[in-house]
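REQUEST FORM: STRUCTURE PREDICTION
Request ID: SP-0412
Submitted by: Lab K.M.
Chain count: 1
Length (residues): 333
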Amino acid sequence: MRTRARTSDEAAETMRLRLSALEPGEAERIVDRALEILAGTGMRMEGTRALADLARAGAHVEGSGLVRFPPQLVREALAGCRREILMAGAEPGRDVHLREGGRTHFLPGGCGAFVLDLESGQRRPGALADLRASTVVLDEMPHVDAMYTTVAANDVAPERRDLAELATMLGATSRHVICVGGPPTREDAVRVIDVVSGGRERFVARPRFSTLCTTASPLAVDGAVLDRHLDTVELGVPLLIYTMPLAGATGPASLMGTVALAAVPQLSPAIVHETGRFCRQKAGLSAQTACIYAERGGEGLEEGAAARSCIRGGSASPSLVRIVRWPAVSSLR
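STATUS: Completed
RESULT:
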């Protein structure tokens, strides 16, 4: 019996490139080391309203905002997180489904502070019009799966910039939008959700945009920034956790040490949310489960290994989905 040879298109549909930076057992060792760091060194979270919930749940909270997380608390909190995330586009054909072992998706790199003006040829600060123009162009590229804030709108006041950038991208692309920063207040987020989806229930079913929380290396997250993202996560907005230690500078000189350090900030915001959700539920209140995914980092493999370690070690946040960011093009898996 003869079988029909597959066409190149059919073969392309089933071919996948697999890249692993870890040997068997290394992921588990990285997770164990990350848990040791969380329990021994901890994370600085000064100013966040979550400190009281963390203390009630069993974390060791100091007056300075330093929080140490017992390993059991970490594992229990992360066990409640989701393992798959929908990044919805304007229509189902534009959706991105993030899951462990799923296909690789691509998005543009971004947040450029300066642009090269096409008319004058001069370098100048980026503006909201540049963000709109670049988003429109990228929206026509078939290999782009989700949209990122490509240019910083320096012509908008800082306190309104994130909201202006989000609104501009949502109006210029049919793809899912990852917004650096996100709505400045919970009220702003509610208004955007109402306009984009017609209400929170519809948005939770198909989240049209997500936000990005940048942690500071080594081992810190701004409390006010964290609270801002906790507000939007509780409304059903997916959250990207960005961590970026530099080996030999803000991280250990060794590669594996930096990998372990990178895993800690990827875990801690998810722990904060899940712990707070558990405490509120015990008090008779309700809250949405977080949708949180972690980014691999833009300058090497160390943060990719960290995110992968969290997944394979059983300590994944809602799916600690792996995202690789390269200088010009990023890929999320």
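NOTES: The radius of gyration is 20 Å.
Reviewed by: T.R.
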